[in-house]
């Protein structure tokens, strides 16, 4: 059963890429938040990327959850455990994420409220009023100056000269003499070159007429802050054709700069106040997106984790079921190298070996009992009828009874091997030189077997601490197997080498037995140490399993591999004797 | 049934009749040729809504974009735009001077007033705007001038506006005005 539907490598790669992209974009968003313009520019594409990742993750998580739920409802194997684990791990991540979101939102809202505190707004407004009052003083002074000039003008003759003198006297930027229709009659300006008069509006003229003066503080991109004053001329103008004097004055540059700063801050504050809710929403949305992404990632991780954890257990259950249903060989469930997988693998192996030992013990017992009566009966038949039968009949009798006796011997050997495999002997550890034992065993085998070349090489200290009888049995089985494997070879060679090694902090003496036989078929390599796996016609398939069992009883290691060129090499790691 | 058909016909007519549209609105546009250049005088009702005025007074600035397009009208073929002219104004409120200002970002000319309607009138009334050189015009063909006016809030990202979807959008597109380049 698969917990997650999207399990293909490419889909996983896409999800992984999206996750990386999301994390990168969130980091970019975090840095961009320092600069409002950059934040505004980047937020949209980054939010799109994150939203896309969110949608993909949401889809994956939903599919996985749906699958788990469906399996759970169908009571599929492992579904209950997987669902519980996924729920537990997800639950563990949901609560902190929600808490973080709630508190962060609350802090953020409070922080924003502090920004837009009423005191701050009042302070800014007061600063603005203070600035204005400073400007008002200047404005009143300019109204007074312009009114004085209006009074001092004594006629339309030489008016431009009068305006020039007056402008210089009161340091005005511009003086304009206008009629009621806003037609310029005369002007004086400090600007050299093309003159573009800044005319008052009709409303301003009307105010000046009714209130005897009109003034305003003005600002422009080019001139900064200026004071504009409009005064009706009473000295020489008539009621039918009223004239107006407009004066434009520059504000003190330092005051202008300060006013600019106050105004800009006030405007910025106003903008932020106006956009307070969208800003608040955008931050909450970003936070929500981050939390959702983190949450979905955690849930996705939880499901994956639960899946990985449950898979070997599930496989164990499955294999156990199938083993009980059929006599098929049990194999390792997964190639995963985590602790759970190793544990399950070891458990399966142990169960398998225990099963084989039990079978072997029962078989040895059940087969051994009738063997002696069979053998004795065959010998008695032969003895009794040897004098009765003649010629062909006698020959048939002898052959048949001999076959029975010899096959009983074969069966007895087999039973002995079964017995060896099944029994759990008490080991008598002693320190001995394994090189001598190797040489003795080889010498003994050479007498019985056809001629083959043996090259022996012993390196370093070859003393081990082990049960010498059991190790002799190991060497006997290994060398017999090797010799049998070389039967069809024209120039059989066995290379035997012992050498000390350190493996996983333990000191071992390694015995390597290398032959130039036909080696093992690749599909058999993994199971050569399992009972009843043999390539020999008359083999019991228990030789190497017994070897492995004895080596494991001695806390040693055993492995086998095919040589690159020809044949196979079997390596046995004996724990070395502790030096005293 | 007859009434329904009439309503449908009226709807289709209303939908596709630009002439009717421009007659209904208080706006006009005209063009004239002078010294080999086509100029335009237009009047269109540029007006800020109450929420836009509120935003303006809060410190937000607005861009008013008058987009003129000169289109060669083709029979049985797609029309072709042969020229475009933009007039852009930056409108803002100065809390210090308590005056609104409109800066023409192309000519650099600026007008300020304590009354926003003065600014609206100033922007609405476009006089003697050079549109297109006569050499680009084939007198045998038909041309129309289209004017669309956009009011856009500055420094307010679109996504931020989307987040306040319940509030009316600060960006507005005004009714289109169109007229023949020449009779």
SSE topology sketch:
The complex is a heterodimer of chains A (580) and B (183).
Chain A lengths: L8 H24 L3 H38 L5 H37 L2 H35 L6 H12 L3 E6 L4 E6 L12 H10 L2 E7 L3 E10 L9 E8 L2 H22 L1 H50 L13 H47 L5 H32 L6 E5 H15 L4 E6 L4 E5 H18 L7 E11 L2 E10 L6 H4 L17 H11 L3 E6 L5 E8 L5
Parallel strand pairs in A: 7-9
Antiparallel strand pairs in A: 1-2, 1-5, 3-4, 4-5, 6-8, 9-10, 10-12, 11-12
Helix pairs in contact in A: 1-2, 2-3, 2-8, 3-8, 4-7, 8-9, 9-10, 11-12, 12-14
Chain B lengths: L1 H15 L1 H7 L3 E7 L2 E7 L6 H9 L3 E12 L6 E15 L4 E6 L5 E4 L2 H9 E9 L8 E12 L4 H6 L8 E2 L3 E4 L3
Antiparallel strand pairs in B: 1-2, 2-7, 3-4, 3-8, 4-5, 5-6, 8-9, 8-10
Task: Describe what this molecule looks like in 3D.
Chain A has 580 residues and is α+β, with helices and mostly antiparallel strands. Chain A has four domains: 9-115 and 275-322, no CATH class; 135-270, PAS domain (Beta-Lactamase); 339-422; 429-575, Heat Shock Protein 90. Chain A contains 14 helices and twelve strands. Chain A has helices at residues 9-32, 36-73, 79-115, 118-152, 159-170, 202-211, 253-274, 276-325, 339-385, 391-422, 434-448, 468-485, 522-525, 543-553; strands at residues 174-179, 184-189, 214-220, 224-233, 243-250, 429-433, 453-458, 463-467, 493-503, 506-515, 557-562, 568-575. Chain A is rod-shaped, with a radius of gyration of 52 Å. The model of chain A is unreliable at 1-6 and 326-335 (pLDDT under 50). Chain B is of the alpha+beta class and 183 residues long. Chain B has one domain (28-180): Immunoglobulin-like (Sandwich), CATH 2.60.40. In chain B, the strands form two sheets. In chain B, strands 3, 4, 5, 6, 8, 9 and 10 form a seven-stranded antiparallel beta sheet that branches. Chain B has a three-stranded antiparallel beta sheet with strand order 1-2-7. In chain B, strand 5 (99-104) and strand 6 (110-113) form a beta hairpin. The A-B interface holds A 40, 43-44, 47, 128, 131-132, 135, 201, 203, 216-222, 225, 259, 262-263, 266-271, 273-275, 277-279, 281-282, 285 and B 54-55, 57-60, 92-97, 99, 101, 103, 108, 110, 112-115, 118, 155-161, 163-164.
């Amino acid at each position: 059963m698969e917990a997650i539907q999207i399990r293909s490598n490419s889909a996983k790669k896409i999800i992984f890429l999206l996750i990386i992209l999301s994390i990168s974009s969130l980091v970019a968003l975090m840095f961009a938040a320092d600069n409002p313009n950059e934040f505004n520019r980047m937020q949209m594409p980054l939010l799109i990327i994150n939203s896309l990742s969110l949608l993909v993750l949401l889809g994956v998580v939903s599919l996985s959850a749906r699958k788990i739920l469906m399996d759970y409802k169908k009571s599929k194997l492992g579904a209950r455990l997987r669902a519980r684990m996924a729920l537990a791990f997800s639950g563990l991540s949901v609560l902190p994420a929600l808490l973080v979101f709630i508190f962060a939102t609350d802090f953020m809202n409070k922080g924003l409220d502090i920004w837009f505190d009423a005191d701050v707004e009042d302070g800014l407004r007061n600063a603005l009023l203070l600035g204005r009052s400073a400007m008002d003083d200047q404005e009143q002074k300019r109204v007074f100056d312009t009114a004085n000039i209006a009074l001092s003008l004594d006629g339309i003759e030489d008016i431009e000269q009068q305006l020039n003198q007056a402008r210089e006297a009161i340091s005005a930027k511009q003086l304009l003499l206008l009629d009621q229709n806003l037609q310029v009659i005369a002007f004086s300006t400090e600007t050299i070159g093309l003159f573009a008069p800044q005319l008052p509006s009709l409303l301003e003229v009307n105010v000046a007429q009714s209130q005897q003066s009109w003034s305003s503080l003005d600002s422009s991109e080019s001139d900064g802050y200026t004071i504009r004053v409009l005064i009706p001329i009473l000295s020489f103008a008539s009621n039918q054709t009223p004239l107006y004097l407009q004066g434009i004055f520059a504000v003190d540059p330092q005051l202008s700069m300060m006013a600019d700063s106050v105004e800009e801050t006030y405007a910025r504050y106003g903008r932020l106040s106006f956009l307070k809710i969208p800003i608040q929403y955008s931050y909450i949305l970003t936070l929500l997106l981050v939390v959702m992404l983190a949450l979905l990632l955690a849930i996705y991780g939880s499901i994956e984790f639960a899946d990985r954890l449950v898979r070997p257990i599930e496989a164990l259950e499955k294999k156990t079921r199938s083993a009980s249903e059929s006599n098929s060989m049990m194999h390792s469930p997964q190639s995963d190298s985590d602790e759970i997988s190793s544990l399950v693998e070891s458990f399966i192996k142990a169960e398998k070996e225990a099963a084989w030992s039990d079978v072997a013990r029962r078989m040895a017992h059940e087969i051994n009992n009738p063997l002696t009566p069979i053998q004795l009966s065959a010998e008695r038949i032969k003895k009794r009828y040897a004098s009765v039968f003649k010629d062909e009949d006698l020959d048939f009798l002898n052959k048949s009874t001999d076959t029975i006796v010899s096959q009983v011997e074969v069966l007895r050997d087999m039973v002995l091997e079964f017995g060896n495999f099944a029994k759990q002997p008490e080991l008598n550890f002693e320190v001995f030189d394994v090189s001598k034992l190797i040489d003795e065993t080889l010498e003994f085998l050479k007498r019985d077997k056809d001629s083959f070349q043996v090259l022996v090489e012993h390196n370093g200290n070859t003393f081990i601490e082990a049960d010498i009888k059991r190790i002799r049995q190991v060497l006997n089985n290994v060398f017999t197997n090797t010799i049998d494997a070389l039967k069809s070879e024209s120039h059989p060679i066995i290379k035997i080498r012992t050498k000390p090694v350190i493996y996983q902090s333990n000191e071992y003496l390694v015995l390597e037995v290398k032959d130039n036989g036909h080696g093992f078929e690749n599909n058999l390599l993994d199971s050569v140490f399992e009972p009843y796996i043999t390539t020999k016609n008359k083999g019991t398939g228990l030789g190497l399993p017994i070897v492995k069992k004895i080596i494991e009883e001695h806390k040693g290691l055993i492995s086998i591999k095919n040589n690159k060129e020809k044949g196979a090499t079997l390596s046995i790691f004996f724990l070395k004797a502790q030096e005293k | 049934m007859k009434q329904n058909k009439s309503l449908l016909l009226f709807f289709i007519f209303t939908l596709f009749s630009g002439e009717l549209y421009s007659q209904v609105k208080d706006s006009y546009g005209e063009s004239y040729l002078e010294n080999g250049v086509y100029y335009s005088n237009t009047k269109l009702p540029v007006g800020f809504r109450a929420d836009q005025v509120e935003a303006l007074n809060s410190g937000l600035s607005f861009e008013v974009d008058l987009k003129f397009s000169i289109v060669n009208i083709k029979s049985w073929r797609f029309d072709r735009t042969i020229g475009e002219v933009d007039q852009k104004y930056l409108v803002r409120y100065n809390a210090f001077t308590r005056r609104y200002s409109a800066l023409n970002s192309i000519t650099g000319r600026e007008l300020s007033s304590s009354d926003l309607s003065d600014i609206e009138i100033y922007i609405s009334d476009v006089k003697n705007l050079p549109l297109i050189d006569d050499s680009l015009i084939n007198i045998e063909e038909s041309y129309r001038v289209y004017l669309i006016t956009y009011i856009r809030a500055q420094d307010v990202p679109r996504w931020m506006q989307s987040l306040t979807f319940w509030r009316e959008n600060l960006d507005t597109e005004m009714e289109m005005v169109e007229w023949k380049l020449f009779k």
